[in-house]
TrEMBL record:
This is ABC transporter domain-containing protein. Residues 40-261 form the ABC transporter domain. InterPro entries: AAA+_ATPase (IPR003593), ABC_transporter-like_ATP-bd (IPR003439), ABC_transpr_TagH-like (IPR015860), Bact_Polysacc_Export_ATP-bd (IPR050683), P-loop_NTPase (IPR027417). Keywords: ATP-binding, Nucleotide-binding, Transport. PANTHER family: TEICHOIC ACIDS EXPORT ATP-BINDING PROTEIN TAGH. Belongs to the ABC transporter superfamily. The keyword Nucleotide-binding applies. The lineage of its organism: Bacteria, Bacillati, Actinomycetota, Actinomycetes, Micrococcales.
Length: 407
């Protein structure tokens, strides 16, 4: 049950049966009646809290050779960050064993790795010494770190005053230039600007070419495809696929498709079902600056009294809602006695490259139909970004047009 450093000749990381469980406090068994709660209290007077175990990683076994840049993909909560935290010894595994063929430099979530009260300069030295480097060794790399990060002017400012972009630039630069044998990067890079992202991907590629090993967690399939030489797909804590980038990406895409297909069956969808969506579509592939256009068709039910409204959530791969629209905001209510076809058009919503899902809801006082992942689309990288025009200080206003036509 450990993460140890040894030096297997041709393996950077070797994992066998790796597992991680978290103990989560629950409020205890719930009681429907006050009398039940009182009886339980009398029977177990000193009982305070109950815990349950949650398995974030199950039985992960894999080998990563030197010179590989491995992309780690998976849905929200799949266990990607937990795996990186074990490899960087931020957290200990609860079972199994990992052998590391060298030191691990890392960039995990913003907020880990740097001491907020210390300046940029002090944090560079602190990180180096935590990796067992002497002062002169760190000094030799200092100028490269600072030049790459572009935060020269703020070197003597405590990092707690840095913007998230500055923080990530310096943290990445430290991790990449301290020349550890293994580099573990969580997708915080998405915080940086496009130019810095490109520079960082080039740097990671150089690290792998140099014969070291890179682990890169990302939701952006395109960057994994560009950077990585192999990939792993985690699904609910299990390693379901480890192989070529193309194979893993195909499996990852299929997982979205199978969830989407399961929701096409109306019996699996929440909601009263008094009225349901018949169809929801959106263009499958698009560029960051394109309008988001979702078309839908709704069936009819003359027995419903009163009108209904439509809402729509667009989620990124982490499950975070990046935008939502509600027909009530534009005073649109619909008559259920006849079928409807409509369109939701979201303008000026610039999206990061990646996969997105669209959830659609038909509601009145309650929900008639809740169709999760009713449609999915992929935003392709579009570099260089077009010039941004700022008019009267207003930038990127999100406009939402509900534009309905009867069938
Ligand atoms: N300290 C913790 N205590 C309890 N549960 C935790 C803890 N850290 C993570 N988890 C749970 O473990 C699971 C895996 O989390 P993890 O952050 O590794 O997933 P992830 O694949 O990195 O997700 P995301 O893409 O959202 O970053 C999640 O269900 C999460 O809620």
């Amino acid at each position: 049950m450990s993460a140890t450093t040894s030096s297997p000749p041709d393996t950077a990381i070797s994992s066998r049966g790796l597992a991680k469980s978290y103990r989560i406090a629950t409020s205890g068994r719930s009681h429907d009646r006050l009398s039940e709660a009182l009886v339980a209290r009398v029977r177990r007077p000193f009982h305070r809290r109950e815990f349950e175990t949650f398995d974030a990683l199950h039985d992960l076994s894999f080998d990563i050779p030197w010179g590989e840049a491995v992309g780690i993909v998976g849905r929200n909560g799949a266990g990607k960050s937990t795996l990186l935290k074990i490899l960087t010894r931020i957290t200990a595994p609860s079972g199994g064993r990992v052998e590391l063929g060298g030191r691990v430099g890392s960039l995990l979530e913003v907020g880990t790795g740097f001491h907020p009260e210390l300046t940029g300069r002090e944090n560079i030295y602190l990180n180096g010494s935590l990796l067992g480097m002497g002062r002169s060794e760190i000094k030799r790399r200092f100028d490269d770190i600072v030049r790459f990060s572009g935060v020269e002017k703020f070197l003597d400012t405590p990092v707690k005053r840095y913007s998230s972009g500055m923080y990530v630039r310096l943290a990445f630069s430290v991790a990449a230039h301290l020349e550890t044998e293994i580099l573990a990067i969580d997708e915080v890079l998405a915080v940086g600007d496009a130019e810095f992202q490109r520079k960082s991907l080039d740097k990671m590629r150089d690290v792998a070419k140099d014969g070291r090993a890179v682990l890169y967690v990302s939701h952006q399939m395109q960057t994994v495809t560009t950077l990585c030489t192999s990939a792993m797909f985690l699904d609910r804590g299990r390693l379901v696929h480890h192989g070529t980038v193309d194979d893993v990406m195909a499996a990852y895409r299929d997982s979205f498709t199978s969830f989407r297909e399961s929701q096409e069956d109306v019996r699996r969808r929440p909601g009263s079902g008094l009225i349901r969506f018949a169809r929801v579509t959106t263009p499958e592939v698009r560029e960051p600056v394109d309008d988001t256009v979702i078309t839908f068709e709704v069936g009819a039910n003359p027995e419903i009294v009163g009108k209904y409204f439509v809402t729509c959530h667009v989620r990124d791969q982490r499950g975070v809602i990046v935008t939502q629209c509600d027909s009530r905001l534009v005073s649109q209510w619909f008559d259920p006695s006849e079928p409807h076809g409509g369109e939701v058009r979201i303008k000026d919503l610039w999206l990061q490259p990646g996969l997105y899902t669209v959830d659609m809801y038909l509601c009145q006082a309650g929900v008639f139909d809740e169709w999760q992942a009713a449609a999915t689309f992929e935003v392709l990288p579009h570099l260089p970004y077009p010039e941004v025009v700022i008019e009267d200080g207003i930038f990127g206003a999100v406009l939402c047009d509900f534009d309905y036509e009867a069938w």
